[in-house]
Fold this sequence. Notes:
It is built from 11 helices and no strands. The protein is mainly α. The protein has 2 domains: 3-30 and 147-218, Orthogonal Bundle (Endonuclease Iii, domain 2); 40-141, Hypothetical protein, domain 2 (Endonuclease III, domain 1).
Amino acid sequence: MTESTAEKALAERKKRVRKIVTALKQTYPDAECALHHDNAFQLLAATILSAQCTDERVNKVTPALFKKYPNAAKLARAKQEDVETIIQSCGFFRSKAKNLIGMAKALVNNFDGELPRTVEEMITLPGVGRKTANVVLGTVYGLASGVVVDTHVKRISNLLGLTTSQNPEIIERDLMDILPKKEWVDFSHRLIHHGRQICIARRPKCLECPLLKLCPRVGLVPLQ
Length: 224
């Protein structure tokens, strides 16, 4: 692919993603993070728990967790087995309990109990990768540090021809290249809602889809 052809393809993706953003805004104007939380610490803990677990299940577990450990200082002093008992139904509960306590200790020891506001600092916390950092920074602080790439964003971005990669880090870069920065946070929230409500992996409701005319699956040639 020549440089001019690559630039043309990028311009076409940017043009199409603007239409996708508009359609998603109209369909999900109030889309927000599905994990229940009252502050940044709670959202961080909930996001760590959400790995390979449904948001619904996490939301059933976190009230008891936050009642007993309302802040990083108290969670940092928790016993591993006590945390495991509370979060057991989330799966991988031993490693998640270890990460939760480790995260809390790191917050207390390195950040005075407050969540840092950069991805670079966030990913130094146990159990925290770029996705988790982007979720918390974008949702709580409104900081567009990147684009959250979960299973829905990964799948639908490929279906829409916005990326051809299966690697979350590459997908994030591809989306950051074509999305206006002001849309990074809400685009992920809306695409996740879309994946749960309409573009469902095993039973997509294509005829109800607001992105039908923009989807390669119904005749639009995917951009290379």
